[in-house]
Amino acid sequence: MSLLQQESPEETEIGLKGEAYTKGSSHIVIAAVIATVLVAGAMVAYVLLGEKPPPVTGELLQVWAHPRHVETSGIDANGFPMPKEIVDEVLIFAHVRLHNQSKGPLLMQDVLMNSKLGGSILSISAGTAGQYDQVFLAYPEIAEKHERALSPHVIIEPGQTVEGTVFWAARMSKQEWDARKDLSFTFQFQYQPSLTLAPHFAVTEQ
User: Fold this and answer.
1) CA 200, CA 63: separation in Å to the nearest integer?
2) Residue 67 region, left (φ>0) first, then alpha (ψ -120 to 50), else beta?
3) Separation of alpha carbons 87 and 140, rounded Å
4) Residues 115, 92: contact at Cβ < 8 Å?
5) Cα–Cα distance for residue pair 149/189, rounded to 1 Å
6) Pairing between strand 161-170 and 120-125?
7) Which CATH class is domain 56-205?
8) Average pLDDT over residues 141-152
9) CB neighbours of 184 closer than 8 A, spacing ≥ 6?
10) Is there a contact between 89 and 170 (Cβ–Cβ < 8 Å)?
């Protein structure tokens, strides 16, 4: 066909249809891109708007321990011989501050001290506020460290901040305590997720 030859009506019609198809397909691509952007934006908005802050926040202010090694003399009160008893124990104390940022009261059910000893995980429940006070009567050498106790069963009202010391008594030697791999404290609440805090400072001994 020469450059001056005119296209037939049929060829012109086919060409116009091809252009229409091309334009239509480009419109489909643009619409698909817009739909993808809208869906992604909706998902991000859902996550941001639906994500709720944790009901409680907290921080560890101080953690210290008091290792004890007790070995009886092997003689009873009447002077008669008796088997010796050896008791290794470590008292752990954590001064903590908790804040209820939810709209309802929070009932704390327990506070666990978690430590990895060797190849096993040790989790111990906290002592009560009454037991905490008795510890300082039984061991006057640490009486100066006596502070306000935080009960492991305290109720924290909405917007309230509580602060105090929680304690644990672990049957282990000082060598085992010194060889621990890590240390954390888990605050368990009724019908709410737990809060786990780990000290990011040195744990002292008294």
Assistant:
1) 10
2) beta
3) 18
4) no
5) 18
6) unpaired
7) mainly beta
8) 94
9) 113, 114, 115, 196, 197, 198
10) yes
Q: How far apart are CA 100 and CA 110, in angstroms?
A: 16
**Residue type for position 60:** L
Burial class (CB in 10 A: 0-12, 13-18, 19+), 46: exposed
Q: Which amino acid, one-letter code, is at 76?
A: D
- Name the phi and psi angles at 188, rounded to 5: -100, 135
**Model confidence over 56-81: pLDDT tens digits?**
999 999 999 999 977 765 666 676 67
Distance separating alpha carbons of residues 79 and 197, to the nearest angstrom: 49
d(CA 57, CA 97): 8
Provide CB contacts within 8 A for 123, sequence distance 6+: 112, 113, 114, 186
Domains of the chain by residue range: 1-51, 56-205
Q: For 121-133, what is each residue's pLDDT tens digit?
A: 999 999 999 999 9
Bridge partners, residue 84, by sequence: none
Amino acid at 41: G
For the chain, the maximum distance between any two Cα atoms, rounded to a whole number of angstroms, is 133
Return d(Cα 194, Cα 98) in angstroms, integer: 12
